[in-house]
Amino acid sequence: MTDHATTPGPAAHEKIDTSVPHSARIWNYWLGGKDNYPVDQEAGDAYTAVFPGIVTIARSSRAFLRRNITYLVAEAGIRQFLDVGTGLPTADNTHEVAQRIAPESRIVYVDNDPLVIAHARDLLHFTPEGATAFVDADVLDPERILAAAAETLDLTRPTALVLSNILGHVADHDRARSVVTRLMAALPSGSYLSINDGSRGIDPVFEQAQDAYNESGAVPYNLRTVDEITAYFDGLDLIEPGVVSVPLWRPDPTSATPEPVGEHGGLARKP
To answer: What's residue 139's pLDDT?
Structure first.
C-alpha cells in the first residue's frame, strides 16, 4: 500500500472551466473558502438571495461529517476511509478529523472535478503513522474507485465509505442506489456507510431555489425524499438515531438546540 499518492484518471488534464458555475466551488464559497471564481460567487449570491438558509445547510453538512467521522474512529474503531466526491479542501476534512483521534488512520479521497484535482495536494498531508491518497475517478465508476483505493487501503478490513452531497449529482435514483450497492459489496462485514444529501419535504423555499439552480445551466443537483435517502442504507444496520436532518444526528451536547434543515443523512454498519 502506498502512503502518499495521487492516481490520475481521464480528467487529470482537463482545463478548469471558469465560465460555468460548479457546485463544488459554490459550496466552497458558502463555507467561506477561497477556491472559487466570480461565476461561482455570483451563482452562490443569487441562490442565497432566494434562500439564505443554504449557508446553514452547507455548514450543517460539514458538521455532520465531522461528527460521523468522530463516531467512526472513537466509538466504532474504524481506521480506513473511502471518501467519494470529497469536493474542495476546507476545514475538518475526513483525514484531519480521523487522524486527530487515531494518527494511524488511512484515507482515500475520490473526485473528478479538475479544480479539486488541482488542489489534491492540500488533502495529502497526513500523520507519519497514517496515509492519505487521492484518486481521480467518477462516482459512476465504482470498479475503478475500488481498484485504485486498494493501493492505499486494505479492503479486507472494515472501511467507512463516505458519500457526502455527491449522490444528488446522479440524476437517476436507481442508478445512485446501484453505485452505493456496488461499492459496499466490495467492503467486508463491519464496514460502515455514511451518506448525507439535500432533501425534499422540509423547506419548500429551498426546493424552489434548488430547482431554479438546476435550470440555470449549472451542473444539476437533485434533492431526494427522505425515503429515497433511507433506501441507500437497505440491508445495513442503521446507527441511532437513523436517517434524520443532519443537525439532529448526534448533536454536540454543548450546542444550541438544533433545528431541522433540508439535508438528511445517516450512518450504518454492514452486518
So the answer is: 96
Q: Is 89 left (phi over 0), alpha (psi -120 to 50) or beta?
A: beta
CB neighbour list of residue 139: distance below 8 Å, 6 or more residues apart: 84, 85, 110, 112, 145, 163, 166, 167, 169, 170, 179
**Model confidence pLDDT, tens digit, residues 151-197:** 999 999 999 999 999 999 999 999 999 999 999 999 999 999 999 99
Give pLDDT tens digits for 199-211.
999 999 999 999 9
Of 22-31, 45-54, 260-269, give the range with the top mean pLDDT: 260-269
Give the model confidence (pLDDT) of 19-31 as tens digits: 788 777 888 888 8
pTM of the shown model: 0.90
